[in-house]
Request: fold
Amino acid sequence: MGQLTLIRHGQAHAFAQDSDRLTELGETQAQRLNQYWLRHGTTFTESYSGKLKRQRHTAEIAMAGVTTVALQQHEAFNEYDADGIMHVLRPRLLATDATFQLLDSEFEAHREQPDRNRYFQRMFEYLTLRWLRGELTADNVESFAAFQQRIHDELKNILQQDGAGRRVALFTSGGVIGSVVQAALQAPAEQMLALNWRVRNGSLTEFTFSRTRLSLDSFNTLPHLDEPALRTYR
Reply:
């Protein structure tokens, strides 16, 4: 049996113009993970990430001195197209759905307030659920089905490679982690989003695997982040 560890990237600049980069706190989260792995003598035979900057930067910090194997980058492990959902599908739903219009207006009213995450989450959950169900589509926005397919195709390619005692690290994002956990548990598709919302920055989700089976061992743990201030969702 092999071991697979999925690591969510550190905190990024969620509401900035360039949201695909780590905050100072996000870098600290990755550094703490690096220190934890070095302290416990953790090693990996392979390391992977998506191609987003926040994923790659987290991997570069966390893996320093942990392994000498090169980081392999795959677009298949990028997050779902949140920009497309927000900028293409959101206006379409605003034009037709009164419930969403209220949720969206509440978020806009609090966009510059300290509690903006709460209002964004309510709006975005409603929006992404409609996307997941296939009720909101656009030619230039990746569908939920396509998102799921690319993740599981590439992960299958990795897990079916030869080798004994494999320890695989994969640095990715919350939606990808939610999708892999949902598939491993054979849960309904909508559980992918429920899991996604709970995945914390820098967290570890661990599996054992063979060529034909992927089994969840632990979900969303933070053994390297003791201080509450270092534990974030966005």
About this structure: The helical segments are 24-39, 53-62, 82-94, 98-109, 116-132, 144-159, 174-184, 191-198. The chain has eight helices and six strands. The two ends are 33 Å apart (CA to CA). Residues 116-132 form the longest helix (17 residues).
